[in-house]
Amino acid sequence: MSSYIERLQNRTDGRETRRRVLTLSDDDAAEVLGTLSSDTSRRVYRSLFDAPATPSELAARHDLSIQNVHYHLSNLDEAGLVTTVDTVYSEKGQEMTVYGPASDPLVLVGEEDRASSIDRSLRDVVTGLGGLAAASLLVQWGAERLARGGTGAAAEPAGLGPVTGEPVGTLSWLVFGVLEPGLVFFVACLVLAAVAVRFRA
């Protein structure tokens, strides 16, 4: 079954993590803030987090000219905010560059001494989420095997029996129709982690 946990795992595995931590004393921070001071640049940059896009797609999204989009993309690229993520071809065979965010998350820190610790924290969070998603996938797989009872038949939600009309697969219905074990495990671990962090604070 294509579950939320599987989609989360695929997203975690399929995307390279590119975090960026800047301090106010960095020259790069001044360039980033200067670039994002433009409302149009911010709109273009923000929309790339929704979905990577070509300049023509961005022009259509924001009702801008291609020249204007290229201008803002150039500024965003010079500030290290966007990068090329793919190349596609139009119906006429013209090569088009697909742009996306160069870093996610982008964090601005006031104190330089805190930058390294925040960077480590972000790395730990991303690593932890990836491991938790993998563990949740294993929980889901184990629950499915338990529901099948080792017969090799796919676990399905309850239905009506072909003759008696009685519900069949009650355990499967309870496990997969009401609760998704992997997702429950994932959410429970997040809650426990949040409680632990709160008590440590």
Automatic annotation (TrEMBL):
Keyword annotations: Membrane, Transmembrane, Transmembrane helix
Record has Membrane as a keyword: yes
Stored Pfam families: HTH_20 (PF12840), HVO_1552_C (PF24267)
Chain segments annotated as transmembrane: 173-197
Domain HTH arsR-type: 31-104
Keyword Membrane attached: yes
Protein name: ArsR/SmtB family transcription factor
